[in-house]
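explain this chain.
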Amino acid sequence: MLATAAPAVKLQDLRTPEQAVGSMASDQALSTFWNLVERLRVAAADQRPIHHVEEVIFRQLLVIGRDLLRAFLDWAGDGDVGPTLTIAGETPAEPPQVLPRLETPRCRPYLSIFGEVTIERVLRSRPPRRRPAGWPAASAPAAILLPAPAVVGRLRHR
């Protein structure tokens, strides 16, 4: 469709630890952007049809968006705050809870408008909740609520 051109801009080298994590994905997005700009200049000079140019722009913007989303996820981190996390109790009267970190981070797919990306997160193990007095045990079957027979009869006759 459109000719591919070499990037016209040399990207700045980011060296702080916070910036270095997501710099590869953001560099790729910037490189794709400047490559697209150069391809548009060539397309204008070659008088390419606008519908071809529009398709290339759209596809490249999706690639750029996914690269920037990956950079954001890298910069945001995996949520690891150490071996334990202390959170407040469910009520002010309850003591704080200490949640241990699970051994391995968990990955899950995330379907964004730019395509699928994988999100890696560090999860915590929450102790089992205490049930209030009078609640059935967790192993007991839950009650199923059904409408009264008179209501069912009226629904059938409509």
